[in-house]
Design a protein that fits this description.
The protein is of the alpha/beta class. It is globular and about 70 Å long. A hairpin with a 4-residue loop joins strand 23 (517-521) and strand 24.
Length: 561
């Protein structure tokens, strides 16, 4: 029996090419004006070089999303990498664009986020740890604004900031529940005025969302200036630009905003840049990275966070709306294991064949297919294969998709790399070349804010109603009166169900969407609708992944995914 290697073993055995050679495949010249090296295998592309490509035609954009997540796993990143390698394998010029991993989940419960098996991006350890320092820059820029707020109050508070209505927290890129709610400025008059504060994880920062939606440095600076940081005693907003914070914050981000280029195990280019939370923000890599890929390749494979109800909807209604991106097709990743969980099977029993449970769980996949088609986009299904999947289960899934007019491709990229995704790649390329996409948004920008929320709730989540008290409705009206009525909606809710109850698997109907809180992201230019309990600072589990991560005798990292 062949040894089953861990992801980190496979990554460590990779025969990487110098990043200059990888960039040469997509026509990027080996010169300092085009990119800067971050070691032998990572580069940052210069914005000035990308500006020169402005008039070049765009490639085809392929969005990879998934069914509703379960503990059984779906494998969006792995499938995105595998599809990219598959497209290159069949002779297409393709780039994969991914998010950067956060240190919090890497040391918490998720582990690394660079793909898996023989469908990975490398160098895996660097990508999963500090990478090129982008997240550290975002953390520093965010906390500079926090420091400027308290410093302004200390020196007289000319803007009349109400210390009870400061809405800008601090951040760090690590899971630490002890910092969710804290008291600061203790220790006497010399340290400032005591007040309540707290920490979010860096990927939940509005700076991260802005970073990933900005089109260039000028746009980045403008958006940072428009961040609402607090309110005065008479409820007037105070912005970051009132503290002249946008200039120095942009300085801290000037190198981070350049897209990072690495490679897959098969030496195909990968752009990894940015990584906002898929709950409290839109959950996609940066607009700059995606647009760079579209100028440099004929196909760009990118992913959105969580299932299609959260990730794909936000990608299409927020990211595409703000950046004028138009996908050519959508790939929905499904696993037989996860679908059986949606059919009622416990995780411990997933190894056993259960066609009946699979058929029951297929309603979840059907819902995502129907929802995606509402955006006018052709759909393909990628069946991420696991070794315990049986022929009967695979046939039941592929036959079901065929009955819906959608082709399902069995993908074995985890074990076989690009050889395992040739069928999917061929089909996806065919969908793109047919130019049948008639992309449209779920709602218009001019639609009233509450109506936008209702549209998402009823069309995507299939809820019967949206529950919002008078305070929430008045807040939405206030946003409209303040000029924010055209902003898109970012729903923050559990990723584990179409409803707000994570225990409701499959495709529930007849439920309600209760709104707990509304938050204005005036810099990122969307409105966050919080439904249920959403943590913006995760805690570590009882046995964190950090317990298994260490340096071996040879100085190599062990236990990272």
């Amino acid at each position: 029996m062949n040894e089953i290697k861990s992801d980190i073993q496979i990554a460590r055995e990779a025969k990487m090419q110098p990043i200059t050679d990888v960039l040469a495949k997509i026509g990027v010249p080996d010169e300092s004006a085009a990119f800067g090296l971050m070691g032998r295998y990572i580069a940052k592309v210069n914005l000035e070089y990308l500006e020169k490509l402005r008039n070049k035609s765009d490639g085809k954009l392929i969005l990879v999303t998934a069914i509703t997540p379960t503990p059984a796993g779906e494998g969006k990143t792995t499938t995105s990498v595998g599809l990219n390698d598959g497209l290159n394998k069949i002779g297409k010029k393709s780039i994969v664009c991914l998010r950067e991993p956060s240190l919090g989940p890497s040391f918490g419960m998720k582990g690394g986020a660079a793909g898996g098996g023989y469908a990975q991006v490398v160098p895996m350890e660097q990508i999963n740890l500090h990478f090129t320092g982008d997240f550290h820059a975002i953390t520093s820029a965010h906390n500079l604004l926090s420091a400027l707020i308290d410093n302004h109050i200390y020196w007289g508070n000319e803007l009349n900031i109400d210390v009870r209505r400061i809405v800008w927290k601090r951040v760090m890129d690590m899971n630490d529940r002890a910092l969710r709610s804290i008291n600061i400025n203790l220790g006497g008059v010399a340290n400032g005025f005591p007040r309540e504060d707290g920490f979010d994880i860096t990927v939940a920062s509005e700076i991260m969302a802005i970073f990933c939606l900005a089109n260039n440095l000028e746009d980045l600076e403008k958006r940072i200036g428009n961040i609402t940081i607090a309110y005065t005693r008479d409820r007037k907003p105070v912005y970051a630009k009132d503290l002249k914070a946008q200039g120095p914050m942009t300085v801290l981000l000037k190198d981070a905003i350049r897209p990072n280029v690495t490679q897959t195990l098969e030496n195909n280019p990968a752009i990894i840049h940015g990584g906002p939370f898929a709950n409290i923000a839109h959950g996609c890599n940066s607009v700059i990275a995606t647009k760079a890929g579209l100028k440099l390749a004929d196909y760009v494979v990118t992913e959105a966070g969580f299932g299609a109800d959260l990730g794909a909807e936000k990608f299409l209604d927020i990211k595409c709306r703000k950046s004028d991106l138009k996908p050519s097709c959508v790939v929905i990743v499904a696993t037989i294991r996860a679908l059986k969980m949606h059919g009622g099977v416990a995780k411990d029993n997933l190894k056993d064949e259960n066609v009946d449970a699979l058929k029951k769980g297929l309603i979840n996949l059907q819902r995502h297919i129907e929802n995606t088609k509402k955006f006018g986009l052709p759909v393909a299904v990628a069946v991420n294969h696991f070794i315990k999947d049986t022929d009967k289960e695979v046939k039941a899934l592929t036959d079901f998709c065929e009955s819906l007019g959608v082709k399902a491709s069995l993908c074995t990229h985890w074990a076989n790399g690009s050889e395992g995704t040739k069928d999917l790649a061929t089909h996806v390329a065919s969908l793109c070349e047919k130019n049948e996409a008639k992309f449209k948004f779920l709602y218009e920008s001019k639609t009233p804010l509450f109506k936008k929320i209702e549209t998402i709730a009823k069309e995507i989540y299939r809820a019967d109603e949206v529950i919002a008290d008078t305070k929430i409705r008045d807040q939405l009206k206030s946003f409209e009166e303040s000029g924010y009525g055209d902003l898109p909606i970012c729903v923050a809710k559990t990723q584990y169900s179409f409803s707000t109850d994570p225990s409701l698997k499959g495709a529930p109907t007849g439920h309600a969407l209760p709104i707990r809180e509304i938050r204005l992201s005036s810099g990122a230019e969307f409105i966050v609708v919080v439904c249920g309990a959403i943590m913006t600072m995760p805690g570590l589990p009882r046995v964190p992944a950090a317990n298994s991560i260490r340096l071996g005798k040879k100085g190599e990292i062990e236990g990272l995914f």
